[in-house]
Fold this protein.
Amino acid sequence: MKSSKLFRKYFSAFMIILLSAFTFLGSALLVFSTQFWTRDRQNLLLLNVTQAAFDISNIYAGNYQIYWEEVDRPQAIANVLDQASNTFEAQLFVFSTDGRVIACPETVHDTWLPSPVLCPLHGAWRMPWEIVSPALTGNFTQVSNVGGLFDQSMLIAAQPFTLQGETAGFVLAAQPFSAGLFDYLGGILRLFLLSALVVSVLVFAAVFLITRSLVKPLNAMIAATKRFAQGDFRHRVTSSTNDELRLLADAFNAMAINLATLEASRRSFVANVSHELKTPMTSIGGFIDGMLDGTIAPDDHEKYLALVSGEVRRLSRLVTGMLNLSRIEAGQLQMQRSAFDLSELLFTTLLSFEKMIAEKHLELSGLDDLQPLTMIGDQDLLTQVFYNLIDNAVKFTPPGGEITLHLRQTPTANHITLRNTGTGLTPDELTRIFERFYKADQSRSYDTRGAGLGLYLVQTIVRMHGGDIAVDSDHRSWVEFIVELPLD
């Protein structure tokens, strides 16, 4: 597992995504926390400055008392401003309607109302009108340096006060924006980092296990593939999940089974082809040597030359089948379409087996019903199709048996049915009869020829013509092939 590049790749990807998510969440948390803290502090400042403006209005209305005793107005205003400043560690100022400072906690003149005078400490300040106007309206808050009056960003809150029912100015509270913010964010950030650390450990373990479970069957497939390359197809991949990996493992195992079957078929094919080549060549060589050395009398030469000719044709059919298989699989076999009489093709092909049919005393049925039927296709390839089918029928029909040929035409296709009596095919053989290299019931003594290519080529050629072929059988008495070929 340590050497798995895929494991490191996916694990690293998961961790990068996790860290990116934490970074985004942390940044968003800081932004939202800053906004929340700002709104909260502004609301508190506004509440404080609203109370101060209310108290100042009451002082000049004569409604402000301490312990039910009237107090000195300047002192009372100074107390209000000082108390509010100390409560929220903010600076409070009283501004006139034209934006000039007329009082602060340190300096309150007795004569500033109703005839305002400037604050000796802050009289040079002049509040911008874009702040004065909303401040006189009420409930004004802002984060700024107030047009350069402060050397840093401040939390600003302002509320107007009245004199004899008319707005006489406004009270403004200013607090450094950074005061308390860093401590607040620091606490939140520490809590977030602690939570992120715990979550990271849990996610780290989860991602490790999940990634390993994803990579484990893939590594098993890699190991199995290496064994397949050495010719060992027994290895299987297991998966305890119920997802796409399970489907992949099942598909991989199915592939292994198919490869094992194909390998067994290939070995059988090589053995069959070797036998098919060796047997006629041995016969040909023996006959020719016998004629050359005089073992075979000159009067018998014609007989044995006929046998040699038959073996040569047998070799030719085998080689032709193998060449056609190779050309089909390479996509190089091009059909030469032409119009021809299908009935004539079937009849001519049957005639080539006349001698074998006569020797086995087979009965042919259906020939009298053949009518001229024209179709368009590759005549040579279709000749090979029906030659192979008839060859199988003659070969597997026992002496005295029957072969039935039936041909009918529908508006779209020609249907050819070829049935022979004798031992049929088992259900397993029916499902595999068209497989490449497959030979049904190789123990049959009369099935000593063939390499398992004939019916595979038959099906391939029929499908190249856009048709189809099916097989049916009663295991004890008959086999029937049904070929369907489109008219053009």
Observations:
- Confidence is low (pLDDT under 50) at residues 442-450.
